Amino acid sequence: MRTFTLTLLLIFAGIGAFAQDAAVETGFWRDPFGDPMFPFYLVTGFVFLTAFLVVMVAVYMLKVLNVFIRKAAEERAEKLGIAYVPQPSLWTKFWNSINAFRSAEEERDIMLDHNYDGIRELDNHLPPWWKWLLYGSIVWAAVYLVVYHVTGTLPLMDGEYQAEVEEANARKAKFLASNPPVAIDVDALVYEPTDAILAKGKQVYTINCVSCHMAEGQGSIGPNLTDDYWLHGGSIKDIYSVIRDGVVEKGMISWAPVLSPEQIRDVSFYIKSLVGTNPANPKAPQGVLYKEGPEPVVEETSSL
Ligand code: HEC
C-alpha cells in the first residue's frame, strides 16, 4: 500500500510539473479546455493512467502467484517430511545485499584485537550502497569534467543563460513581427473610442491608476478625472501627454517606461470616456475648465 501511494504521488507530481511548464507559455490553467495542447494532455493523461493501472494489476498478479508458489512449496515439503524454509523475498535479498549486514554470530570473525578498557572494535566495512554512491560520483565527476569542460558538449550555466536569452529574444522578435507596435502620433491624436480600446484602457487603468485616482476616476491622491476641470488641460492630447510624461514633482509618475504608446492611448481614451460620469464622493474640481466641442471652452476657475 505504501508503494502504491508513493507511485501515485510521483505520477501526480510528474504530471503537475509537466503542466506547470506549459502554463507559463499558454495560460493552461486559465483556460484548460481552450488550450491548443489540451487534447495532447488528455491523451498523455490517459496513457499514464492506463500504464499505471496495468503496472498495479501486474504487481497484484505477481503477489497472488507468489502465494500459490509458496503454498505448493509448503505442500511439497510436507510430503517429503522436511521443514519448509520460506525463500527470502526479492526485496529482502536486495536489502541484505546493499547493506551486507553481519549477523551476530559473524562478529567474532571481524573483531579487531585491540581492547581499550573493555571497549573493543569490529572491522565493519562500509555498506555496499555507500561505496557504490562513492564510485558513482567518481564516474560522474569524470563524465562531468569531459562533457562540460573538455569537449563542451553540454553548456555551462553561463551558456545555458545565453541560450535562453537568445531564445527569448527570438520569441520576442517573432511576437513583435506578428503584432507590430502601434505608433501613436500625439499631434494627430483624435478621440475616437471603440469598445475594444475602452476595454483595454479600463484594464490598464484598473491595474495602474486606481490607487491614486480611485475606481471610478473620482480622485483621491490624484485629481478627479470625471469632471470638466483639468490641471494640465482636458484635450485628448493633453491627457495623453500628461500620462506619458507625468508630473513627477506632484506625485504622478511618467508612464512611458511602464506602458506602451498604445496602452497610454487606450487609457487616455478610457479617462476621456469617464468625463461627466458623476461618481459618488468626487474630489473637488482642480484646475481649468475644459469643455469638448467644435470650439473647446477653456476658462480659469476660482477654486484653485
Ligand atoms: C501615485 C499616485 C498616482 C498614480 C498611480 C497615478 N496618478 Fe495620475 N496623477 C496623480 C497626481 C498627484 C496628479 C496631479 C498632478 C498635479 O498636481 O499636477 C495626477 C494627474 C493625472 C492626470 C492629469 C489630471 C489633470 O487634472 O490634468 C491624468 C490624466 C492622470 N493623472 C492619469 C493617470 C493615469 C492614466 C494613471 C495610470 C496609468 C495615473 N494617473 C496614475 C497621481 C497618480
CATH fold label of the largest domain: Cytochrome Bc1 Complex, Chain D, domain 2
List bound small molecules. Answer: heme C
Helical percent range?
40-55%
The number of helical runs is 9
Q: Runs with pLDDT <50, length 5+?
A: none
Give a short summary of the structure:
This protein is mainly alpha-helical.
Topology:
Layout: H1 2-26, H2 38-80, H3 90-99, E1 111-116, E2 119-122, H4 128-150, H5 157-178, H6 195-208, H7 210-213, E3 229-230, H8 236-245, H9 261-274, E4 288-291, E5 297-299
Antiparallel strand pairs: 1-2, 3-4, 4-5
The structure holds heme C.
Which short descriptors sum up this protein?
3 domains, binds heme C, 3-stranded antiparallel β-sheet, mainly alpha
Structure description:
This protein is mainly alpha-helical and 304 residues long. It folds into three domains: 2-87; 128-177, no CATH class; 186-299, Cytochrome Bc1 Complex, Chain D, domain 2 (Orthogonal Bundle), CATH 1.10.760. The chain is built from nine helices and five strands, in the order H-H-H-E-E-H-H-H-H-E-H-H-E-E. It has helices at residues 2-26, 38-80, 90-99, 128-150, 157-178, 195-208, 210-213, 236-245, 261-274, and strands at residues 111-116, 119-122, 229-230, 288-291, 297-299. The strands form two sheets. It has a three-stranded antiparallel sheet with strand order 3-4-5, with no helix packed on it. A two-stranded antiparallel ribbon has the order 1-2. A hairpin with a 2-residue loop joins strand 1 (111-116) and strand 2. The relative contact order is 0.06. Bound molecules: heme C (HEC).
